[in-house]
Specification:
367 residues; mainly alpha; 16 helices
């Protein structure tokens, strides 16, 4: 009871302190040479991402910080979606590896469901049925396919190829049911549609994956924009699915798993909405923690906001001595993080009058 009480009361505080704690934890290990992260490799990855994204997409915002986050998000989504241009993420994501693996497999299953519906439409077309499929029929088809996959859900391409005979037979049967016809299946017909399905899996995978990515990316960008200024606690309450109450809550939550019932009863749009929230949560926290350490650490430099223009009066020594110094531009949160990172890496004391002296002693101390 005491442990459960402490967990319930400390959990909000621990969540709220996630970014600050992890940022200084990782940086402390980097400075001491005990990091699990190759910083140089992460920086090269980021440089490649910036170059590739700028070649493919035009920047639509003047906010440099948000533009960088959008660039970063595109790279993460590209790594999660199973297409031909997937690039592996750097090892700065090592703490999220299980969650990212589950997300990849869920997205891959979504792609295979879409390919199954492509197959369903091909069968319907040959039967002369061109009417729109009802939502009830779609749910029924997804439920039957999920039942066939069973425990193979979440195991990727090989699982779908392994079950292709049963899946193609069920698609053929469901197409006839939707068209109001009785299926007549001989060995030749069965073999023909199984080969068609396997061909779709093999040769249409990339195009279907690109379509899923195109549907997923706008939802994630919209979610990021909505929660851009949210605190870690607000992100958790809004973007992380809350499990049903339990009398014995787990101290360390297990990584999300692929649920067959959820796959069969949620529409693709509902599933994409859930995925966009989970991905947005990982992206926002990772960017806040690692951006000032590895990705954009040298981009923000403190400067004066309004330097005094030269004048004849200022050329006089007496006039110059009477002028007050130009006010410094207040440091943004990102510049503050960058400065803290620089001080921890170099060991140099904060600049006098920079406003960092009082905060450094607390911010750089690990629990």
């Amino acid at each position: 009871d005491v442990a459960n009480h402490q967990i319930r009361n400390l959990k909000p505080l621990l969540i709220e302190d996630t970014v600050t704690y992890e940022k200084h934890y990782h940086l402390d290990r980097i400075v001491k040479g005990r990091a699990k992260v190759d910083v140089d490799a992460a920086q090269r990855w980021w440089a490649d991402v910036v170059r590739d994204v700028h070649l493919r997409h035009a920047t639509t915002t003047k906010d440099l910080t948000r533009a960088r986050l959008t660039t970063f998000t595109r790279a993460v989504i590209s790594s999660l979606c199973p297409n031909n241009r997937r690039k592996e993420l750097p090892d700065t994501f090592y703490l999220d590896s299980d969650r990212l693996r589950c997300l990849r497999l869920e997205i891959e299953d979504l792609v295979h469901y879409e390919m199954c519906f492509t197959m369903l439409n091909k069968v319907r077309k040959e039967l002369g049925h061109t009417a729109t499929i009802s939502n009830a029929s779609r749910i029924r088809v997804r439920s039957s396919l999920a039942a066939i996959q069973g425990e193979f859900i979440g195991h990727g391409y090989q699982a779908w190829m392994y079950n292709s005979e049963s899946v193609s037979l069920e698609i053929y049967r469901q197409a006839h049911s939707i068209a109001g016809q009785s299926p007549v299946l001989d060995h030749r017909t069965f073999q023909y549609w199984n080969e068609r399905l396997r061909s779709i899996f093999q040769f249409s995978f990339a195009s279907h994956a690109t379509a899923v990515e195109s549907d997923l990316l706008p939802q994630i960008l919209s979610c990021l924009d909505k929660h851009y200024n949210s605190s870690p606690a607000e992100l958790y309450s809004s973007l992380v699915a809350t499990p049903s109450p339990s009398s014995t809550p787990s101290l360390i939550p297990s990584p999300p798993t692929t649920d067959t019932f959820s796959f069969s009863n949620n529409t693709p749009q509902t599933r994409l909405g859930e995925l966009s929230k989970r991905i947005s949560h990982i992206v926002l926290l990772h960017w806040r923690i690692w951006a000032p350490i590895t990705y954009v650490e040298d981009d923000a430099k403190p400067t004066a906001s309004h330097p005094s223009p030269p004048s004849t009066a200022a050329s006089s020594p007496h006039a110059a001595s009477s002028l007050p110094p130009a006010p410094l531009r207040p440091k943004s949160e990102h510049e503050h993080d960058v400065h803290v990172v620089k001080v921890m890496k170099t060991g140099e004391p904060p600049e006098s009058g920079s406003g960092y002296e009082s905060s450094m002693s607390e911010e750089t101390r690990l629990p």
